[in-house]
Amino acid sequence: MISRFSAAVFASSALALSAISAQAASDINVRGTIEGVNGQTMTVKTREGSTDTIDLSGDWKISGVAKASVHDIKPGDFVGIASVSKKNGGNGALEVVVFPASMKGVGEGDYAWDLKPKSNMTNGTVAKAVKQVNGQTVTVAYHGGSRKITITDKTPVVTFAPAKKSDLKPHATVFVTAKKDGTKMSAQRVIVGHGGVTPPM
Q1: Which of 1, 45, 97, 177 has the highest CB neighbour count under 10 A?
Q2: pLDDT one-digit tens code per residue, 105-138
Q3: Is beta strand 41-46 parallel, antiparallel or unpaired with respect to 27-38?
Q4: pTM listed for this prediction
């Protein structure tokens, strides 16, 4: 599936990886629906119900997401998986991003994430993938450790896809890692959902 995308898309998506890797204290994740775009200013109705105004800085970039399948994930793939602990042990995936091979190793690690309370983000290489009746369990290895995560057939799984700046329009869903300075927010990268696929990050 990933081979369909051009090398140029892979290269531009490298910046998008920073949106799902360890962040500075001034960074904030914005998830929501676009209310409006005026020049390089975007207004987003967030999932929390607030309205955020984000300045798109300089030569800002955009990436889309395309649907992938849990059954496509195999040993050697580099992935980013948000997960939470399960009562019976291990972790259950909340979402999965399958990165192109050219991005392998970028942003590698395991750290707290804000998709849901007490969730984690694990960026690493699939060391082992065991198929199950409903999905599979993968062991994701990263520098200094590994995490065992169960991915079901209902878990959102995506990869990066081409997108145009014109895709930023009212009602489009977005994921943005923005820099917050007081009341002002700015970003250089937007991940937008289109074609019926929503950024699950």
Answers
A1: 97
A2: 888 999 999 999 999 999 999 999 898 878 899 9
A3: antiparallel
A4: 0.84
